[in-house]
Amino acid sequence: MARNGFAEFLVARRAELRPADVGMPEGRRRRTPGLRREEVAVRAGVSADYLARLEQGRDTNPSVAVIDALADALLLRGDERHHFSLLALASGNESHCPGSESAQEKVAETIQSILRALQPTPAFVVGRRLNVLGWNAAWADFAAPLGLLDGDGQPNLAWYTFVQPTARQVLRNWSEVADTFAAALSRAKLRWPGDDSLVETIDALRRHPEFAARWKPHHVGAPISGLLQIDHPVHGLVQVPFETLDADRDQSIIVWLTDQAQMQTPGLRLVRPAAVNE
After folding, report:
1. What is the dihedral of CA 256, 262, 266, 268, to 10 degrees?
2. Peptide bond into 120 cis (omega under 30)
3. Which pLDDT score, from 0 to 100, does residue 169 have?
4. How far is 94 from 112, CA to CA, in rounded Å?
5. What digits encode the pLDDT tens for the residues 258-268?
6. Its domain of life (predicted)?
7. What is the value of pTM for the model shown?
8. How confident is the model at residue 104 (pLDDT cuts 50, 70, 90)?
9. pLDDT reported for residue 2
10. 3-state helix vs strand vs coil in the chain, percent to 5
11. CA–CA distances in Å: residue 25 to residues 6, 8, 34, 37, 214
């Protein structure tokens, strides 16, 4: 039986904690990292057999009291605790959760208008899977030489970062960016556990060791933001702060806060693939 999101969260969080985190001695040598199932069960006041059924997805109807006890046992606070509770309550009906169906990945005209209005600041729209759904001309100018618009398919930030060799050449802080996008997909999986397209994207990426090492199915982080340190083929070394603005339930606008002078280098050819929204 396949694990549901709640079961994945339980297993991942238990593996992440150490005995010292919960005031327990390390004890004899452990075959696997993290707390033992029996240790979590004792802390939560449930049987180890029942916890095993939850972790294996064989029991999908924990009570509110059990959910709270497990959250306490696993030292969950804030957003993580909230998501843990939502996953638990939906564990038997993930495919019927509101918003869990596959997203409509068409950019609304109002959002396209925002992209155009942001010109000459590079801006683009991403969906649940970090697919780039639309962008303005300034972003196309800057992104095309990086290889982000290579190929016939829809650009995807995570796929570019983990799979395309060009990414390691141009992203000087590649590891930090990789962490950011892995966390973004983990957060999306928590929010839309029944989205088959999202799950397929994550499963495909998990076949790549660098993504698999960063994959934490229970990670709850802030919206995508940070700094790109880019060795740009045209502009040279560029630092690009970026921020995310929620556009609707499924899509976000990402703005690259570049120095406008960097966008006016002569000879940078404007690339207009078929999907570009100007």
Report:
1. -30
2. yes
3. 92
4. 32
5. 654 444 443 33
6. Bacteria
7. 0.71
8. low
9. 57
10. 45, 10, 40
11. 28, 26, 12, 16, 28
